[in-house]
Amino acid sequence: MTDLPDRPRAVGGIWLPSGAVLAVSAAAWVRVHGRPEEARAVAFAAAVCLLGTVASWMAMRPRAGSAAGLVVGPLVATALRLFPALAALGWLQTRGNELRAAGAGEWLVVFYLAMLAAEIARTMMSGRGTLRPPGGTNTI
């Protein structure tokens, strides 16, 4: 067994990106208070981004202990964060007329960017990308 750290549990895990989505949700709810159409658009965008956050976190958990998992895991996690948002934008363009008119597309972009910023911050804080051999130095 390798001595690779359990990356998804390191610094923030699911809490940092989920917290970003929830913080933007709170700010958005204050902004759209009293407008039910816009409130539905905010709820839709928050649900899509939260789904992507949880799905990517769940996909990374079993892959964190192996070297192959460190390659495949981030690719799968990125796809699971990105594709629900893209699918939701596609659906809004074809069938989601009411939500699109209420601004769900714009809210989806805001939520996705907040989630992405939190994921980048979590990745930087956890030290991903700085894998070193057991000796502690980078040797090629």
Characterize the structure shown.
The protein is globular. The N terminus is likely disordered. It is mainly alpha-helical. The chain contains five helices and no strands. Helix 1 packs antiparallel against helix 2. It has one domain.
Number of strands: 0
Structural class: mainly alpha
* Cα Rg: 18 Å
Structurally, the number of domains stands at 1
What is the helix fraction of residues, given as a range? over 70%
Seen as an oligomer or otherwise, the chain set is: single chain
The fraction of residues assigned to DSSP E strands is under 5%
* Largest sheet data: none
Tally of helical runs: 5
Q: What is the rounded distance between the termini?
A: 22 Å
Uncertain runs with pLDDT below 50, 5 residues or more? 1-11
Summed over residues and divided by their number, the pLDDT gives a mean of 81
Order of helices and strands: HHHHH
The best one-word shape is globular
Q: Which secondary structure elements does this structure contain, and how are they paired or packed?
A:
Elements: H1 15-31, H2 36-60, H3 67-94, H4 97-101, H5 104-126
What labels describe this entry?
single chain; 140 residues; mainly alpha; 70% helix; globular; disordered N terminus
